[in-house]
Amino acid sequence: MTAPAPAGTLGSPREDLIAARILDRARDLVAPALADAVATLHPWVAEMAEHALGRRGTDAGRGGGKGVRQALALLGAELAGAPAGTGVPAAVAVELVHTFSLVHDDIMDGDALRRGRPALWKAYGTGPAVLAGDALFALGVETLSTDPAAVRRLTGALGDLVHGQADDLLFSHRPWTGPEAVTTREYETMAERKTGALLGCALALGAQLGGASDGTAAALDGVGRHLGVAFQIADDLLGIWGDPEITGKPVHGDLREGKKTFPVLAALGSPCGPELAALLSTGEAAGRAADLVAQAGGRAAALREARRHLAAADTLLGSVPCSPRAAADVRSLLPALTRRAL
Fold this sequence. Notes:
By secondary structure, the protein is mainly alpha-helical.
């Protein structure tokens, strides 16, 4: 892994540049196959799918997201010594399934915006958005239908994703303090499933299509899962202290919404915990709550834990035989991805 970043940050500008190159290459390689897959859907459903993928309007042709999962799928193939193109079916499948999860997440959370644009349910209605999400899910599985082992890996990751999403929804109903309070360990298990499972699947699935052994694929799955936890924690930091012009979210937004994020959970066990819990229960004085989280060590604890998971990902990556060049790209990509939302 590269040298540690300064306190309060993750990644470096150089890593951002390398990550941008890797992500651009992946989008260029995957875009034609992704467009071909979506074109097989009912025309109206395909139109909604294009909106959800960010391929309509100002983002047309590039996709609205960073394309992290599709990049990891191509790198997985290269780690196994195969050409990047070998991982394209995995990239398409995972990108479709990821988009399906975002469509349904926005409905469950009531989020009106996705990547600065109207969420699909706001643009087309809840019923049509559910239909489009279902279509994206089915299409993602169908993309791998000629490879039963690949389908099993994808559906296994989806099972974990649903488990993590269920836990995340239930967390909102649990108290801030007391024996029923959410612990940081529970949070990390949730994040590994909700965010890490599909990232791990992307790497492992690309490697699997590239001819990697089961052991190598399993280790790469672990790399992605650690990345998922690190990303989720970094996203929590942005949700409290991030620049709204970069994140697209209001400052202290997660505190106003009462989200049980890692920095907050870490801070609740400090002497500041009772005052913090009282503020969070009202959703008011978010600025004071943010100060308390920082004073109680929640921000520092979150940074340490994110770096620990990045280091664990690096250790796992170093444990498997793989292409040195592809491994170097992964090592540059991982910390850069924690700097802002995927």
